[in-house]
Design goal:
There is one protein chain. By secondary structure, the protein is of the alpha+beta class. It has 16 helices and 12 strands. Strands 1, 2, 3, 4, 5, 6, 7, 8, 9, 10, 11 and 12 form a 12-stranded mixed sheet that branches. A hairpin with a 4-residue loop joins β3 and β4. α3 packs across α16 and α9 packs parallel to α11.
């Protein structure tokens, strides 16, 4: 955003930040927060503190460094207010998208950094990884909350965590566990429950799916093609124990489960339907889909309780030799195929969020190394993103009214 454009919406930005920065308390913190967000909004290749401060009238590098990296303001109340504000602005809401993103780093000092896989990098690299949750509609999406993933090596090194400012006694948590914590926070904030949307990294995790169910929420999540299912509800039957052979494995009353890829290949051609889910910049987005009810067979492989039946959604593009994507969903049995496809395909919006947050607002430009500074920076980036989204709505509404 150019300086002239920012001046043109200065009153709206001031009012937006006045309410959302109130939890910071002291007036100088709120002032620094406002300057930081303005610096993020203004054009510039780097959004780290020094160049950011230099492009904002009244910006002071040392003061902003202290505000972001050391000032003890709590970010959760700011994010809570932002979540509540954006839930009111983004209507009608369609889902909560869960995902994670990588932040490439040099060296080993930045909190959470490790050689680990990042979907952003597309490989194993030296990076931080953060899990995020986004509110989405059919047209817009907005990041609401974040948590930094700490690899086991960090948790096993208390001194390293202490130096980086990680709260004491922070346990190791997998990314699906962190995602469930983010969902809990949105519920604690009083946000209206939404279907949870996620890719294979979360959908493959049975504990994650069950955690969503335990919170009385619905989901549409990606799963792998080799995931086993029962085509009809099944149950374990008591096996006879033979002397000297130890504990018998309990068989099932319907044979063995079937991989989703085999299930899809066995469907008749009449089961596949062309569904258009949105109009894209290159024309209509559409593909062939089929759906059926099936029972995930996780309990069969891990000797755990059997799971209730779910929707299985399968995608087989005309140009592909085999089906390409699979999803599970626990939405109601009367769900239509177009609606299920629409929800499954909404997850792409999170990739657009990450791209805009990094390329336009410097999400991954923070050069500090501490836990607190990283969470402060991410919170302020989300405020800047939300304001840009609201400005797009404002201009669209004004344009529409001009021609009404």
């Amino acid at each position: 955003m150019k300086g002239q454009s920012l001046q043109g919406c200065a009153d709206r930005l001031e009012e937006f930040l006045r309410k959302l920065l109130a939890p910071m308390g002291r007036s100088e913190r709120r002032q620094h927060g406002s300057l930081y967000v303005q610096g993020l909004l203004l054009d510039g290749e780097r959004k780290s503190i020094e160049p950011l401060a230099n492009r904002v009238p009244g910006g002071n590098v040392q003061a902003l460094q202290q505000f972001v990296g050391q000032s003890p303001w709590a970010w959760d109340p700011v994010r809570r207010l932002l979540g509540q504000r954006m839930q009111e602005a983004l209507l009608p809401t369609s889902g909560w998208i869960v995902d994670d993103s990588g932040f490439a780093k040099q060296g080993t000092a930045s909190v959470g950094v490790a050689r680990q896989y990042s979907g952003t990098l597309g490989k194993v690299g030296n990076c931080q990884v953060a899990v995020s949750i986004h509110l989405t509609t059919e047209q817009e999406s907005m990041p609401l909350d974040w948590v930094l993933y700490l690899p086991q090596a960090w948790i096993d090194d208390p001194e390293r965590c202490r130096q980086a400012g990680v709260p004491e006694s922070t346990p190791f948590r997998t990314k699906p566990e962190l995602a469930l914590e983010l969902i809990d926070r949105l519920l604690q904030w009083g946000l209206s429950p939404q279907p949870v949307l996620a890719d294979i990294a979360y959908g493959n995790n049975t504990d994650f799916r069950q955690g969503v169910v335990d919170r009385q929420l619905t989901y549409v999540v990606g799963v792998e093609s080799n995931t086993g299912v029962w085509e009809k509800p099944t149950r374990r039957v008591q096996a006879r124990r033979r002397p000297g052979q130890g504990r018998p494995r309990r068989p099932y009353d319907r044979g063995q489960p079937r991989a989703l890829s085999a299930l899809a290949a066995a469907l008749p051609s009449s089961a596949w339907h062309t569904v258009r889910w949105r109009e894209g910049s290159r024309g209509p987005q559409q593909s062939r889909f089929a759906t059926c009810r099936a029972q995930p067979a996780h309990g069969h492989a891990h000797d755990r309780a059997e799971l209730p039946p779910v929707w299985v959604l399968m995608e087989w593009p005309v140009e592909s030799a085999a089906p390409t994507h699979y999803w599970f969903s626990n939405l109601g049995e009367d769900l239509s195929l177009p609606r299920l496809v629409q929800l499954a395909k909404l997850r792409w919006r999170v990739e657009q969020n990450y791209q805009q947050l990094k390329e336009e607002l410097g999400l991954d430009h923070y050069e500090g190394r501490g836990w607190q500074g990283w969470h402060h920076h991410v919170t302020l980036v989300c405020l800047a993103y939300a304001f840009l989204l609201l400005e797009r709505q404002h201009r669209k509404n004004n344009f529409t009214s001009d021609f009404a």
